[in-house]
Write a structure and sequence with these properties.
Layout (H helix, E strand, L loop, with lengths): L2 H16 L5 H14 L6 H14 L8 H5 L3 H11 L1 H10 L17 H11 L1
């Protein structure tokens, strides 16, 4: 699958499932328009079909498998489960969903610390 189409489908499915204020038909229509705009006219039926199916069946979707629950590949979870056991694999997987701090390396040859901090604060 083309990376753009995969990303488009992922974003659209997220909108269908988690964003209540956006009508399902609008999500599907905009995704098809984006596919056509990016010159994937031949895949607009595929995009439309996948999203309409998700829209119809979203009530029956379940995210009970660890790979879906933690957004990691199944093979990775299985590897951790084999090496560390189910409980530790769950802890490792859940750690990927925690917010981690952002670190910034400063090139002090280009600007001093005060300038860099001021620039970063203005961008926030």
């Amino acid at each position: 699958m083309k990376p753009f189409i995969r990303t488009l489908l992922r974003m659209s499915v997220y909108q269908l499932i988690y964003m209540d204020r956006v009508p399902d038909s609008a999500v599907c229509n905009e995704a098809v328009k984006l596919a056509v705009r990016r010159r994937f006219q031949g895949l607009k039926g595929f995009v439309n079909g996948v999203l309409r199916t998700v829209s119809r069946e979203k009530g029956g979707l379940s995210f009970d498998t660890p790979s879906l629950k933690y957004s990691i590949p199944q093979w990775m979870y299985d590897m951790w489960k084999d090496r560390y056991g189910s409980e530790k694999a769950g802890v490792i997987s859940a750690s990927f969903l925690k917010e981690s701090p952002t670190w910034v390396r400063c090139n002090l040859a280009r600007a001093d610390k005060a300038e860099i901090v001021k620039s970063l604060e203005s961008q926030a």
